[in-house]
Amino acid sequence: MTHVAHAKPGAHGGGDAHHAPMSFWQKYIFSTDHKIIGIQFLFVSLFFLLVGGLLAMQIRWQLGFPGKPMPGGSILPQTMAPGGVILPEYYIQLVTMHGTFMVFFAIMPLLVGVYANFLIPLKIGAHDMAFPRINMWSFWLALLAGLIMFAGFFVPDGAPRAGWTMYAPLSARPDLSGVGVAQKLWSVSIVVLGLSSVMGSVNYITTVINHRAPGMTWFRIPLSVWALFITAILGVLALPVLQGAAIMLLFDQSLGTHFFDPVAGGQALLWQHLFWFFGHPEVYILILPAMGMVSEIIANGSRKPIFGYHSMVFAIIGIAFLGWIVWGHHMFMSGMNPTLGSTFMVSTLLIAVPSAIKVFNWMGTMWRGNLRFHVPMLNAVGFVSMFTIGGLSGIFMAATPVDIPLHDTQFIVAHIHYVLFGGSLFALFGAITFWYPKMFGRMMSEPLGKVHFWLTFITYNMTFFPMHIIGMGGQMRRIYDPTIYDFLKPQQPLNVFISYSAFALFAVQLLFAFNFLWSLKFGKKAPQNPWDDNGLEWSLPNPAPHGNWEKTPNVYRGPYEFSSPEAEARGTDFLPQSLKLPTDHDPLPAPLPATH
Amino acid sequence: MTHATQTLDQMRPPFPAETGSGVYSKKLGMWVFLASDVMFFTALIGSYIILRFGMSTPWAKPGAVLNVPLTGVNTFLLICSSVAMVKAYAAIADGKKYFLRKVPGKTLQDGGLKFWLLVTILCGAAFVSIQVVEYIKLIGEGFTPAGYREGSLLAEHAAADPIKYGLGVAGMYGSTFFTMTGFHGFHVTCGVISMLYLYFTKVLPEKYSPQDYAGIEIIGLYWHFVDLVWIILFTIVYLI
Amino acid sequence: MKVRILSVVGSMFLLTVCSKGNQSNAAPPAAEPGAPPAPAAAPAATSSAAGGTVTGKIKFTGTAPRNPTIDMSDEAACKAKYPTAPTEENVVAGPANALANVFVYVKSGVPASYTAPAPGANPVIDQNGCRYHPHVFGIRVGQTLQIKNSDGILHNIKATGKANRPFNVSEPTTMTMPAPRPFSAPEVMVKLECNVHGWMNAYVGVRPDPFYAVSGPDGSFSISGLPPGTYTIEAWHEKFGTQTATVTIAGTESKTQNFTFAAH
Amino acid sequence: MHWWLPPGASTFAAPIEHLFVAILILTGIAFVIVEVGLAAFVIRYRARPGRKALYTHGSTRAEVIWTAIPAVTMVVLGIVSNHYWVMIKDKRSVPPNAYHIGVHAKQFEWQVTYPGKDGKLGTDDDFTIRNQLHVPVDQPVAVELSSEDVIHSFWVPQFRLKQDAVPGMHIVAWFQATVPGEYELGCAELCGMGHYKMRARVFVQTVDEFNAWMTQQAAGGTE
Lengths: 596, 240, 264, 223
Prior knowledge:
The complex is a heterotetramer of chains A (about 600), B (about 240), C (about 260) and D (about 220). Chain A has about 600 residues and is mostly helical. Chain A has a single domain (about 30-560), classed as Cytochrome C Oxidase, Chain A. Chain A has helices at about 25-30, 35-65, 90-125, 130-150, 175, 180-210, 225-255, 270-285, 290-300, 310-320, 340-350, 350-365, 375-400, 400-405, 410-440, 445-470, 490-520, 565-570. In chain A, α2 runs antiparallel to α3 (about 90-125) and α10 (about 310-320) runs antiparallel to α12 (about 350-365). Chain B is mainly α. Chain B has a single domain (about 1-240), classed as Up-down Bundle (Four Helix Bundle (Hemerythrin (Met), subunit A)). Chain B has helices at about 1-10, 25-55, 70-95, 115-140, 155-160, 160-165, 170-205, 215-240; strands at about 100, 110, 145, 145-150. Chain B has a two-stranded antiparallel ribbon with strand order 1-2. In chain B, strands 3-4 form a two-stranded antiparallel ribbon. Residues about 1-20 of chain B have low confidence and may be disordered. Chain D has helices spanning about 15-45, 60-90, 205-220; strands at about 100-105, 110-115, 125-130, 130-135, 140-145, 150-155, 160-165, 170-175, 180-185, 200-205. Chain D starts with 12 loop residues before the first helix and ends in a 5-residue tail after the last helix. With about 220 residues, chain D is an alpha+beta fold. Classes of the chains: A mainly alpha (about 600), B mainly alpha (about 240), C mainly beta (about 260), D alpha+beta (about 220). Chains in contact: A-B, A-C, A-D, C-D. The interface between A and D is large, with 100 and 88 residues.
């Protein structure tokens, strides 16, 4: 992070530019610079990603070798794993917190917190977010929420034990779950997180609508920004619903209300409806930004304009819209009226359409391209192939009759990991490598990156593909010991195999961690436009100064003019958006907004 | 439209000229925030509706437990505050920063921004105080988020007339009532506090001018929204 | 983390301290289930000289309801421990209608001035053969309960107390719960149950003083060390309810107080 | 080590398996197209000196094609699936001659209530047995699900039947076993620390065996 020190304090228009020079605290801790905030999010959420990974390793140990003392497990408190043997209640804490951390504190902040903050102003030619201070608060609240959640491990009875979906009444009644304090902490943490992400989203939406550089028309906006913009809208509308639900849950736990407690007339299914009404848009919050950034990288790597830019945009909007009317497909087995099930099935299946459009358009982009396989490109292609598997396996569960044997089994676990790991995480490996120079002024190691990609790609598939099979075999989610079931015993060897692969997968990620940290200091200095990209951000030095541009750039064309005749004329195969050709006219600044 | 530039100066960056919405950013931001707040209340109110109509036994009769006249007065106060907010907005729009001023030929004095915003704040504060009093009274009578307290006055009434007092649904009644009205009260309180802040930092020092009164407009948006939500809550919680 | 470490260390310490207690009251499954726990005996040893004693026999009239047999075919480990199909322990009758597993305690009358001797070794409850041993027992306020699993299969133990903090923990293997559970307030009775094996339940009476006992298989009980005074003594049975009697103790005399329940 | 759904033992097994295979084929085709396509492009169009990328912004015809094909397939799939879905889960689909058995889920056991001699639930000759579900073969059985405390899920892999038991709700799920034998009933919805231990045995018996067992139990074997 030291390299961001090059930020020119005097730079025009940036968050706090006027009282320069700033102290270290102003610049890096209580910064209002969108780039620094993005970097803060990056470090925090990478930490939580590591935490989530460590929890996953323990889950895999228990599933592969039930009841065997876990190596090094003896350092855990006796109330979790006496003698290294994981207790059932600790196992449930593991699955609960793995899901919670990965979804709410790793993937979501990595995609939205980091890249919405970092990319939106840079890619639309703004000097900073619309509300820099609110932006700073959104980071600190997110961190606070994470710490509250993390505290769950250290309070009496340990972390929450109701699964990351917190199904009531199990989550609402301490006498049934066996845990009191931490369940409340979960609710509180989610309320705080919701606040943070609403603040963030308000910022992103306003910035994209109001702070685009002259000439940056709606259909010249890079797809990553489009995706993040739609994601922000989803966030603004979805998170408050979860907040409301979490507050009701908190009151059930502490004030003695009965929203989700049938004993006093509450409804257990109400929680599921509220949670998934938030939860499905959340799924798209977790994938849309990845799709957007992958589009950038694939266009760049293929040296071709993105195939069907407009349909890509409408696909994003379509997915986001459908995301609001499919939540019931998480509840096919819940006792919800089967007729509702039919409607939700149809709407769910339709999501395959925009998803297919995107996949085929990515392929169309690569078709007859001139593919440069730099690390981001490798990960992007990995994303497309893995996301395809995740999407297709979703169809099995969307078709309600087939969902009956697959629902709540390891099959769904495989599905969600193909989308969130094979999807979002591969995209993130690509994105981190791609914009690393813009963040830190240095390149990550190319050879290490390639080794990391291939090893990850292999071990990842070894880990998650067999889960489809044990899921078909009927292994339920979140069970502590599959071997007590006769119909699961035969496939235990596969569980062992998965566990070994998972350990390998985790080990490989340390390679990435090393590459990331090592390059901070020793990576080779980045040229201004290392990937020959068109984006506005590359018209700035690396790392970009505080306040970004001295003078707002003008935008003359769309973001994907690779290999265009004009470019050829210049002897290159790319054409930056802000580059003025003799044939270009300056865009007129739009009139100032009428306030009333 | 110079005042727009001033508004822009308050927030960085001063340029590029804002393309797109034609609404200045702070106002747009407030609209977006209100959209999210709508979703928040939708979650609470939606749950209320689902729970209430999912009940097997009937809901308590209006006015059986809750003091409708008192809350009616309260509702009136809040509507007044909304009106006062409109007046304050109009006042600053044509430059009336003062408190009260004698107008020739009129018996009534003419109120300026300082006057009308103060009225708004007072009505809002009164609303919150009355709600607090109402809560204390209700809990005293034995109406709690968990239902009717054992051995309380209310519990006896309910036992005597289970239909009128909705004995079967007491738990749900308490849960939904306190959650929904409580969070609305919280919103009002936030509004009052931020208006007080504006009053002492911007209004009294006469920072606002017909060219720039974004602060008033934005808090006004929020205030009208809170008022609207209350009218819905009052209808579905107290009257139906 | 610090809190947990401490609790672990503490429990280790307790474990060593209580090892003696274990021998005295960890009853094997075959042995009489209602063996009176250590604390009842401990004070008797120390202060029987100074104080009176109440002894008695507990009987019931009518025919005892049949204890349902337990189908343990799901748990071979437990089933193997019984020659014939085991039954629940709702009513444990001895010869001549003697009634075991009755918790007898001094409900009121203990002078406020009375200072109870320090509690003895902490009681132990053992999950053995998918049944709790002991099935009914007493514990002093401030004592902790050692929870032992001799079956090597998953048991969870759930205490649904009102005055005492409820807990719900599990033991998947043969082990003794590292963190013994404290009982902080008087309560008769706290029910203990295992949700994995619906038939498993036990009852613990939490008392501030040492004046309680559990009737043995012959229905007899003995409370000693009572200072002079008039006491209300209550006998509690899980199926037959409670009965009370008033006893006046002068000096170090020994009174007899029998209870008779009606089996209905 | 088996690599497929567990052997089916109810009338639902066949249709669900057919649908499963159908979807497997559909998705298989899509899978091959995409992955092989990607692989081919990766090799064929990799950067080489002198290679020039084609400058194009897309082709509406192509996009219409790969929008329409999935759309149609999905709608068809939806219609077909819905037919079976209604057959399995719809309340009106429970056969009138179904034999009703009550299953009450609680942390962490299944309490199965049998109608006794009169074959009706809710009469006083009902009796309840823990963690044992006996059903006659080739006879529709309607399971009346209820829950004591939290949400559980009734899951018998070989029957291809899964249905949550929700506290405060009374849910009827039906099936018709086709193969006599012993199976397992597990809980598929996280219900607490003993979730994985919430296991009951399912006995599919010939009608005679079942009746014999029933009379013996009704006479008060256990419970």
